[in-house]
């Protein structure tokens, strides 16, 4: 049985029974911006230490696009977003592009309200069945009210 005590930080938040894709070997990443201290690869690579994650260099909508070298099947999308500093409502959209197609398909749109110090972490695990995925795109609007918040992503894993 997996247990988490309420109001405690979960140390291992990744499902242990999934075989996550090694994006470093299978894809290239495209992105709109990144802070030097929080590069995009720190949110995508399969490492034990994912303490930093990615952060945009500026406010406003940001995009992270994973472009596979060869089309893949994606059955799980797992992401974690942390916000420790400011209260805000974020929206993200996940889209995907099938091999040999030119139009993205919207997979889902999700809003989440961060309210530190109590509500600081969004954890999402989506079970999907996407065949022949060439590109997966994550668009993040860090503050739907137009504030100066920067987009953040602690982890993004695909299986």
Pairing-aware structural class of the strands and helices? mainly beta
Q: What is the helix fraction of residues, given as a range?
A: under 10%
**Tally of alpha and pi helices:** 2
Low-confidence stretches: none
* Content of β-strand: over 45%
Describe the global form: globular
**How many whole angstroms does the radius of gyration measure?**
15 Å
Q: What string gives the helices and strands in order?
A: HEHEEEEEEE
Q: What do the pLDDT scores average to?
A: 91
CA distance, first residue to last residue = 22 Å
Find the count of extended strands (DSSP E, 2+ residues): 8
**Biggest pleated sheet:** 6 strands, antiparallel
Task: Sum this structure up briefly.
With 159 residues, the chain is mostly beta strands.
How would you sum up this structure, described in words?
Helices cover 5% and strands 52% of the residues. With 159 residues, the protein is mainly beta. Strands 1, 3, 4, 5, 6 and 8 form a 6-stranded antiparallel beta sheet that branches. A two-stranded antiparallel sheet has the order 2-7.
């Amino acid at each position: 049985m997996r247990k988490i005590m309420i109001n405690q930080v979960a140390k291992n938040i990744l499902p242990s029974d999934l075989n996550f894709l090694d994006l470093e070997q299978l894809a290239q990443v495209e992105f709109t911006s990144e802070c030097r201290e929080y590069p995009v690869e720190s949110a995508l690579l399969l490492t034990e230490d994912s303490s930093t994650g990615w952060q945009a260099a500026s406010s406003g909508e940001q995009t992270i696009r994973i472009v596979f070298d060869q089309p893949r099947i994606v059955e799980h999308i797992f992401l974690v977003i942390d916000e420790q500093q400011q209260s805000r409502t974020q929206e993200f959209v996940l889209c995907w592009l099938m091999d040999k197609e030119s139009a993205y398909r919207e997979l889902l749109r999700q809003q989440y309200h961060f309210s530190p110090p109590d509500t600081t972490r969004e954890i999402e695990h989506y079970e999907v069945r996407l065949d022949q995925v060439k590109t997966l795109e994550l668009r993040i609007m860090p503050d739907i009210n137009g504030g100066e918040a920067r987009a953040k992503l602690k982890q993004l894993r695909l299986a």
